[in-house]
Amino acid sequence: MSSPEPTRTELPQLGRRGGGWVVAQFVLLLAIAASALLGLGPRGALAWVAYLAGGALLGLGIALLVAGGAGLGSALTAFPEPRSGEALRTTGIYGRVRHPIYGGVILVALGWSVVFATPVGLALTLVLALFFELKSRREEHLLEQIHPDYPEYRRRTRRRFIPHLW
Fold first, then answer.
1. All domains of the chain, ordered by start, with CATH?
2. What is the pLDDT of residues 41-84, one digit of tens each?
3. Predicted confidence band of residue 17 (pLDDT cuts 50, 70, 90)
4. Which of 12, 34, 81, 118 lies in the 20 to 30 Å Cα band around 23?
5. How many CA atoms within 13 Å lie on the side-chain side of 126?
């Protein structure tokens, strides 16, 4: 007898706690970091624009990462499966966006790719954004099972990754 098809929100666990998601995330981040070696290196006046824009993206991403990590405190984990016994975070940065750490990582990857003018890095950043879209869906499915008020929080907090944008 075949198993039923997973619903849209039921993405694979990839390991007992979702370790496959963490490994894939680490590989993607290493590939983005290494993409600097393939960068074109901005030149002339364009270099300053790339450094300023990329630096701003890096700074915003780091700020979002720090705010997200501080907001989670002891609940922080790289795994999509939430730590048991932790309360749902709905205030601070989590009152504005549901996955600020993922948003911060995306902005850091984008800033890195701009600073080093690497088309490969930009392409991998798009892959990373899609990856976090899928990982966050899995995480939200698990959060719904633990926190009955999660659907209301998701309805109230419309942005997934970046305040005012996405």
1. 19-156 (1.20.120.1630)
2. 777 888 999 999 999 999 999 999 999 999 999 999 998 889 88
3. low
4. 118
5. 5
